[in-house]
From TrEMBL:
It comes from Streptomyces pseudovenezuelae. Belongs to the IF-3 family. The gene is infC. Keywords: Cytoplasm, Initiation factor, Protein biosynthesis. This is Translation initiation factor IF-3. Residues 7-76 form the Translation initiation factor 3 N-terminal domain.
Length: 227
């Protein structure tokens, strides 16, 4: 069935409960009278409650109503927060530099309001030392405790050990802060036009670098663990 309400000549009932253009109650009137009033006001007669007896109809500019409804829906989708589960893979004997790099990505994900699935991958004889992975996960959780919490405790899954970190900050808050930071950068660039070109080039390099990093370390949360 169509979600569109019936309007004007498509309404097929003998009488309707009519609501005026300003929301005032006109009362129950014959359909012909309601259509006559719609034409007089240069508006549409729109059925807003088809199951009522008699159906409720309102005088309105239906084209304008549809446009405003579409804009509201678009704005709601724009502000809708989708929590994403990122994944970071580590080895139990990771070197300090790699650990700091991976931790930096986890910090960035949590700041963005996303969950992070941490996977420790064991190979060969490492599988007999699960405590190495457990200690590494505990260390990481402690290092980012100001940004996130352990949502799912470490657990063995075949040759992997998995832990999920949840952000303290809600996704909507992270999105709002990101928008504010972007607006602040734009305002600064406008006030200091001489710096805008260098800033734009710097942002481009940074964004390109981050995109490359995410392509390397992020996988869908439900993807099978790496062997």
């Amino acid at each position: 069935m169509s979600a569109e309400p019936r309007i004007n000549d498509r309404i097929r009932v003998p009488e309707v409960r009519l609501v005026g253009p300003s929301g005032e109650q006109v009362g129950i009137v014959p359909l012909a009278k309601a259509l006559e009033l719609a034409q007089e006001y240069d508006l549409d007669l729109v059925e807003v409650a088809a199951t009522a007896r008699p159906p409720v109809c309102k005088l309105m500019d239906y084209g304008k109503f549809k446009y405003e409804s579409a804009m509201k829906a678009r704005e709601a989708r724009k502000n809708q927060a989708h929590t994403v589960i990122k994944e970071m893979k580590l080895r139990p004997k990771i070197d300090p530099h790699d650990y700091d790099t991976k931790k930096g990505h986890v910090v960035r994900f949590l700041k963005q309001g996303d969950k992070v699935k941490i996977t420790i991958m064991f190979r060969g004889r490492e599988q007999s030392r699960p405590e190495l992975g457990y200690r590494l996960l505990q260390r990481l959780a402690e290092d980012v405790a100001d940004l996130g919490f352990v949502e799912s405790n470490p657990k063995q899954d075949g040759r992997n050990m998995i832990m999920v970190l949840g952000p303290h900050k809600k996704k909507t808050e992270a999105m709002a802060e990101a928008r504010q930071a972007q607006e602040a950068r734009k305002a600064d660039a406008k006030a200091n036009p001489g710096k805008s070109q260098n800033a734009a080039e710097s942002d481009y390099v940074e964004d390109e670098s981050e995109a490359e990093v995410e392509a390397q370390v992020e996988t869908p949360a439900e993807a099978p663990a790496e062997a």
